[in-house]
Design a protein that fits this description.
alpha+beta; Rossmann fold; OB fold (Dihydrolipoamide Acetyltransferase, E2P); 2 domains; six-stranded mixed beta sheet; 9 helices; 19 strands; 25% helix; binds adenosine-5'-triphosphate
Amino acid sequence: MMSGIRLENITKQFEGSTAVNHLSLEIADGEFLVLVGPSGCGKSTLLRLLAGLEEVSDGRIMLDGNDISGLPPRERNFSMIFQNYALFPHMTVEQNITFGMRMRNEPKDQHKARVDRVAGLLQLEPLLKRKPGKLSGGQRQRVAMARAIVRDPKLFLMDEPLSNLDARLRTEVRDGIMQLHQQLKTSTVYVTHDQMEAMTMADRIAVLDKGHLQQIGAPEALYAHPANLFVAGFIGTPSMNLFLLPCAAGVLTVENQPVRLPQTDHAQALTEVYLGIRPEHLSDRPVDGESLQLQATLTYRELLGAEYLCHADTALGKIRYVRKNQLRENVGEIPQPGDRITLHFSLHDLHLFSGQNQQNLH
Ligand code: ATP
């Protein structure tokens, strides 16, 4: 029998727009899958389709080998956590947590054991008798999570649960979600527009743009091998430097240095190629191995703490690179605005995308 959840060629149309377009993916048992993409890419719609709050226009949603596309939300046994987690203000934390069980007339003697378990997991024991008005934002979010997990759902659906929290709380709640996942191993689909959040939390990331699945894979894989120009620009901070450059007969020339394109018919026929290089892979000092060089003029630098983000002009266009802030070394070594510099990067760290269909050439 098939375990886990499978989306088979899902399409969702609203009048005039296609929010999700022929999308297929699988969520393995116990997996933490993050859906990420810019505003309007279809993430929330996909989550609502999974929850049963929207109906698919085409395609199937399979759970453990059964088609659940037509099931109403309550029969799916999925639990959804939204960014606006409405708690009942007149009920205690405990009553909020048990609300769903009471609505379903589940036997009372089961309540206590289950409340104790989730309260323990989320460190809510001292708060059970309090009302939501007497809780901090992070505590309230934990209660909302307790309410979602107390049913022991097959799948958690989380729609930007951190987005209304301040920076410090966001880290706290994020760590809480990760710990909870470690302990419960409940399959989770988590939506965010924040690629850093996706990188730090996900087992796998699914990148969406305009309703299409662009790439799905482990964070490391997406960072090292972005499938196309969109993923290359979206995953990684600061974002990848990208230049559209002319090429001929399968050779790209970068400041008089030839770069051979892969020996495929597609690559050999191209007249334009996107060259991509991540800011952290550029150096103003020589690098090991086969490398390329770019002449540049430093325009300005931003101190980020342990490193500078340096901005420079090159013949290809504006470029950014990351430079360690070596406080103990001679400060004169760090280029100043206006300095002429040579930027080096290893051929190994170069990304090439088709100028025609924007797919990775490798
Ligand atoms: P955001 O990060 O801004 O929430 P999103 O990636 O979650 O965006 P969706 O909310 O899924 O995007 O919307 C995807 C597309 O579908 C958008 O173009 C949106 O306008 C459209 N859409 C979503 N819901 C509806 C609806 N109920 N009726 C009509 N169009 C809709």
